[in-house]
Amino acid sequence: MATGISEMSFHATTRLYAQHFCTASPFISPLRKNAKANQRRSLHARSWGISEKTHNFQNINLSQPFQSGKKFTECHCQLASDIANLSHDEANSTWVQDAVNKVSQVLGSTNGKGAIEFENGSAKHGEDPTLVMPEPAKDLQPKKTRGSSLVEDEAWRLLVESMVYYCGGPVGTIAANDPLDSNKLNYDQVFIRDFIPSGIAFLLKGEYEIVRNFILHTLQLQSWEKTMDCHSPGQGLMPASFKVRTVPLDGDENATEEVLDPDFGEAAIGRVAPVDSGLWWIILLRAYGKCSGDLSVQERIDVQTGIKMILKLCLADGFDMFPTLLVTDGSCMIDRRMGIHGHPLEIQALFYSALMCAREMLAPEDGSADLIRALNNRLIALSFHIREYYWVDMKKLNEIYRYKTEEYSYDAVNKFNIYPDQIPPWLVEWMPSKGGFLIGNLQPAHMDFRFFSLGNLWSIVSSLATTQQSHAILDLIETKWSDLVAQMPLKICYPALEGQEWRIITGSDPKNTPWSYHNGGSWPTLLWQLTVACIKMNRPEIAERALEIAEKRLSIDKWPEYYDTKSARFIGKQARLYQTWSIAGYLVAKLLLEKPDLAKTLWSEEDAEILNALNVMVDPTNPRRKRGKVLKKTYIV
Ligand code: GLC
Questions:
Q1: 314 CA distance to ligand 1 centroid (A)?
Q2: Which of 320, 486, 490, 502 makes an SS bond possible with 567, Cβ 3.0 to 4.6 Å?
Q3: SS3 for 408?
Q4: For the chain, what is the largest distance between any 2 Cα atoms, rounded to a whole number of angstroms?
Q5: How large is the average pLDDT for residues 53-70?
Q6: What is the role of the protein in this entry (predicted)?
Q7: Cα 335 to ligand 1 centroid, rounded to whole Å
Q8: Mutation pick for ligand 1 pocket among 164, 191, 276, 522 (CB with most ligand atoms within 8 Å)
Q9: Are 360 and 603 a contacting pair, CB within 8 Å?
Q10: For residues 582, 584, 588 and 594, what is the CA-based torsion angle, rounded to 10 degrees?
């Protein structure tokens, strides 16, 4: 799509220009091409003259930067002493007030303009008309829930403490916040995927600003210079994580600047680009609009461009025969070698979900017609492919067991030439007569029969799975409770790779030993996805049961990242403590079970048009069915 590409590069340039404009204001340093490598790659902000300890500032007025020919961005400064005054006044507040005040004080300028004032326990908009701040829904206003448990209160406190600030404004939450951990690696960064439950917890509480800031700042990182050994990935890539660094300013020993330093996988263990980050970003953007009612963020030109850049990267033509996204091992939550390269379910479910969300948000305009058509075609093809080929239950397993192989024809039953011997012995015993699931991966002559929780749950949430399949997945979780939930929800995958398989597939990874970490470990953060899926299918009691189990241990165990052993008895061997997405996952589950109606903002309903197209595709009387003629290619991306 020639016009699309030039349009995108135009907007990418404008976005970089916007950054430059911001940093070139009197208070923020210009982008300096000759700065040190990490500074060059980072978003810059600057305090001046005096060390950062005595000054603080904000440049958070990012609203409507490219519209009406107005000034793009404004950078206001705020003295730390003023913040100190505000902090003093807060001394008697409840913790929720503290949290909201904290957010308010860093967002507000010292004269009160643009600040969210805290009055009688509710956030109130300040006077600055340029600052777009949605009114929190009445029943979402931050308040201490009467009857909230001690565990819940502790979780909120920890979540607030994990907040990360940039230029005085909250922009995310740190991955793990254990003060006693001396080897933090990159757990002191804001991970895009880890922030999703944090962001949703804030949204559900009516705290919108941190999510808005996160969306806009990570958007700026999207078009950042990123290379590994002279090679650059596609432009729409979102980072896996970022860190706020305070660095000395070149040529001025008394000054420092804050920079946002993203990691696109160039520093990550294994050097894997995070395919899921951009997909989660789109999903969170849609949730922000739904929860806050503020559609102005998704309508911004730069945000629209950001969505298109992610889609362009995902929808680009390649060598693939399958509509699924082809990715390398470790490009999602499981971010190290676990044999999930190819077309892993988790990525496909997030891809489908992001396409659904993007379709809702893309402004209908001439320039995006091709993209929207491409997106619609992909939704149909992807949905057919996953529903048809990834699904296993007793009936399907028995079909595979009796497969003929080496079929050469357009109408082969065993299209991927799967040898029945591939059916693993554990699955023959494990598959319940009621229930089923979507397998982990599908490649030529290869089905990865492992059960991956996130992919299955998000297939329910996004309506990638049919209603029947969605119920069957929940049936399986219920039936296999002692394997998948046991003493802590939820197994990341089942079963673990052991022995020779573990050696070959993980490369003898000592962190991924059987029933540990990604290899059959149990991750409390998955509670929130389980909860959304259960509420969507009107079976909240399953999530309630899981939450009850988690609630008994999480706080006592200091909110571990993951649990080990077959039945999740131990805190994970190398699990971080005070892991933010364990805390946020618990909170989202708790909030949603209290107010199930709110979960609607997070899922996508089955789309009638897609369903209709699928019916046409599987209709045996349809003459166009042969050789996939239904999905005529009508677009160029
Ligand atoms: C681990 C997880 C990854 C997560 C990161 C930060 O690497 O595998 O999914 O984002 O920790 O918590």
A1: 22
A2: 486
A3: coil
A4: 78
A5: 29
A6: Invertase that cleaves sucrose into glucose and fructose.
A7: 7
A8: 191
A9: no
A10: 90
pLDDT in tens, 79-127: 222 323 333 333 333 333 444 444 334 333 323 322 223 233 333 323 3
**CB count in 10 Å sphere of residue 1:** 18
Residue minimizing CA distance to atom 1 of ligand 1: 335
Q: In this predicted model, what pLDDT tens digit does every residue of 317-339 receive, in sequence order?
A: 888 889 999 999 999 999 999 99
Atom of ligand 1 nearest to the CA of 333: 9
Q: Which residues line ligand 1 (CB under 6 A)?
A: 175, 187, 191, 193-194, 333, 335
Q: Please give the share of the chain, as a percent, with pLDDT higher than 70.
A: 73
| DSSP structural state of residue 599 | G
Containing H/E element for 411?
none
Question: What are 333's two structure tokens?
Answer: 């939550």
Residue 136 has what pLDDT?
40
Q: Give nearest CA residue, ligand 1 atom 4.
A: 333
**pLDDT-based confidence at 439, cuts 50/70/90?**
very high
Atom of ligand 1 nearest to the CA of 581: 12
Q: Is the per-residue pLDDT at 268 higher than 50?
A: yes
Q: Whose CA is nearest to atom 3 of ligand 1?
A: 333
Tokens 């357009």 locate to 410
- CA 215 vs CA 170, 201, 222, 266, 566: distances in Å: 11, 15, 11, 22, 38
Q: If you measure from the C-alpha of residue 333 to the centroid of ligand 1, how many angstroms do you get, rounded to a whole number?
A: 6
- Comparing 74-78, 181-185, 459-463, the range with the smallest average pLDDT is 74-78
Model pTM score: 0.80
**Probe ligand 1: pick from 174, 194, 562, max atoms within 8 Å of CB?**
194
Q: Which residue has the tokens 């305009």?
A: 365
3-state secondary structure of 20: helix
How long is the chain?
637
Which atom of ligand 1 lies closest to the CA of 269?
Answer: 7
